[in-house]
Automatic annotation (TrEMBL):
Source lineage: Bacteria, Pseudomonadati, Verrucomicrobiota, Opitutia, Puniceicoccales
Keyword Cell inner membrane: no
Limits of the Pyridoxine 5'-phosphate oxidase dimerisation C-terminal domain: 172-213
Gene: pdxH
Domain Pyridoxamine 5'-phosphate oxidase N-terminal: 35-158
Gene Ontology biological-process annotations: pyridoxine biosynthetic process
Protein name: Pyridoxamine 5'-phosphate oxidase
PROSITE patterns cross-referenced by the UniProt entry: PYRIDOX_OXIDASE (PS01064)
Cofactor descriptive note: Binds 1 FMN per subunit.
A Pfam family: PNPOx_N
Family assignment from sequence similarity: Belongs to the pyridoxamine 5'-phosphate oxidase family.
Length: 213
């Protein structure tokens, strides 16, 4: 067995105190997201998305956050993909931003819903042509025999759409994760990290609590 037990680092960049917390978690999210951008974190909008299948078995993958507001956090994907099938069965999801460069992780949990076709179209239209074609080419998460299949399908799509508009596929669009819980984690020395959660109550108000690291 490879022993990597000595791989460790002290976290000492910053602390997180209750007085620092924005009353609304989405504002705290915005603040941390901006700080991740300013710090030059690679792909600061990349997050790990965990879903569960019909038997409750978890799986995860990275996706890119493309929009957020009080209503939730939006990412785009293929509506026939494995993750989308999971979400159709069980809307519950958990996402995690691994901002390790800032000695932070940010976790958000809640249910996912599809955004409107109009909203998906708006974002789809803003994507580069290659990405729009790619959405048509990939039957995401299905088994394929070779890369050649993808290349042939791409050529077929290029011929089909020519120089014209590339429409939004009906199997592609956005999901909004509607937050029920946020957790802001800041690494501290001696593993005495700062953790604050915001949990939404039945009235829709947020309560905060410090958690033991
Ligand atoms: C940094 C990064 C960003 C990604 N962004 C997306 C994305 O925004 N949407 C997407 O569908 N897949 C994205 N992927 C690919 C997914 O991780 C995954 O392979 C794909 O969505 C299929 O997942 P599924 O079979 O679990 O549904 C990204 C992968 C990486 C590494």
């Amino acid at each position: 067995m490879e022993d990597i037990g000595s791989l460790r680092r002290e976290y000492s960049r910053a602390g997180l105190n209750r007085e620092d917390l924005c009353p609304k978690p989405i504002d705290q999210f915005r603040l941390w997201f901006e700080q991740a951008r300013e710090a030059g974190v690679d792909e600061p909008n990349a997050l790990s998305l965990a879903t569960v299948d019909e038997r409750g078995r978890p799986s995860q993958r990275m996706v890119l956050l493309k929009a957020f507001d009080e209503k939730g956090l939006v990412f785009f994907t293929n509506y026939r993909s494995r993750k989308a099938k999971h979400l159709a069965e069980n809307a519950a999801a958990s996402i995690l931003f691994p901002w390790i460069q800032l000695e932070r992780q940010l976790i958000v949990e809640g249910d996912c819903e599809k955004i409107s076709t109009l909203q998906s179209l708006k974002y789809f239209s803003s994507r580069p042509r290659g990405s729009r074609l790619g959405a048509w080419v990939s039957d995401q998460s299905s088994v394929i025999s070779s890369r050649k299949i993808l290349e042939m399908k791409l050529e077929e799509m290029k011929r089909k759409f020519g120089e014209g508009e590339i429409p939004l596929p009906d199997f592609w669009g956005g999901f909004r994760l509607k937050p029920r819980r946020f957790e802001f984690w800041q690494g501290r020395p001696s593993r005495l990290h700062d953790r604050f959660e915001y949990v939404k109550d039945e009235k829709g108000d947020w309560t905060t609590a410090r958690l033991s690291p």
